[in-house]
Design brief:
The structure is a single chain. By secondary structure, this protein is of the alpha/beta class. The chain has seven helices and nine strands, in the order E-H-E-H-E-E-H-E-E-E-H-E-H-H-H-E. Strand 6 and strand 7 (115-117) form a beta hairpin. Bound molecules: zinc ion.
Length: 228
């Protein structure tokens, strides 16, 4: 964190996992639209939409958007960007998955058939996207990538794997946004496992050159912005 930061606004602070730790060193305001989530944040809190923040222009040294932008529907997205730019006096700090393949995390609800991202991500962003989104008002001063690379998988084969081999994510913490259903335990099925394995082989050996799959594309980025 830059040394001239005294106060921070954490937009989309959720249950305060990060915000509570920041609050031990900085004056922090946590903002979230979920009453249930934000009650776990112990510091100063704002129950509000990220697209309409009740704070004055340039009133906060650093505005943090940590794993927020990828969750926002189009209607809220542009307002949130505008609010972050409006309120930040010195810095914006953005954390997001880098170029995520949303297909890999799709869950199909056992109960109602709804297909959803297990973490409810609605969009995939790259560092270039972020630079473009904030670039008119803030200049990217630094960025960091970290995490394992995403698997390289042809999207048509992945779709075949989902539909033919039941290759949906079965993340145990997933909750269906339509009916609240949770993935049950997956019954082993030798035939489906064989189909999945063949599709993996086809992807690795036929469609993707192995050398290409060694190109590392890290999963997450963090970028600092300074006002222009
Ligand atoms: Zn459902």
């Amino acid at each position: 964190m830059p040394c001239d930061v005294r106060n921070i606004l954490d937009i989309g602070c959720g249950d305060g996992t990060i915000t509570n730790r920041l609050a031990t060193r900085f004056q922090v305001i946590g903002l979230d639209s979920s009453r249930e989530a934000i009650r776990h944040f112990l510091g100063e809190k704002l129950l509000a939409s990220s697209g309409s923040v009740p704070l004055k222009d340039q009133s906060i040294d650093l505005v943090l958007l940590s794993n927020v932008l990828e969750h926002l529907p189009a209607a809220v997205f542009s307002h949130t960007v505008r609010e972050a730019i409006r309120i930040a006096r010195r810095y914006l700090l953005v954390v997001s998955p880098q170029n995520e393949n949303l297909q890999f995390s799709q869950v199909k609800c056992d109960d109602c058939g709804c297909i959803y991202h297990r973490n409810y991500h609605l969009r995939s962003l790259t560092l270039t996207d972020i630079d473009r989104i904030f670039g008119q008002d803030f200049e990217m001063a630094a960025y960091t990538f970290w995490g394992e690379p995403w698997p390289q998988y042809d999207h048509r084969l992945w779709e075949l794997k989902q539909y033919l081999a039941d290759g949906w994510s079965r993340w145990p913490l997933a909750v269906c946004p339509l009916c609240g259903g949770k993935p049950g335990a997956k019954e082993p099925n030798a035939k489906l496992e064989k189909v999945a394995m063949l599709l993996d082989d086809l992807n690795d050996e036929v469609l993707f050159d192995r050398r290409e799959s060694l190109v590392r594309q890290t999963r997450t980025f963090r970028s600092h912005f300074l006002p222009r």
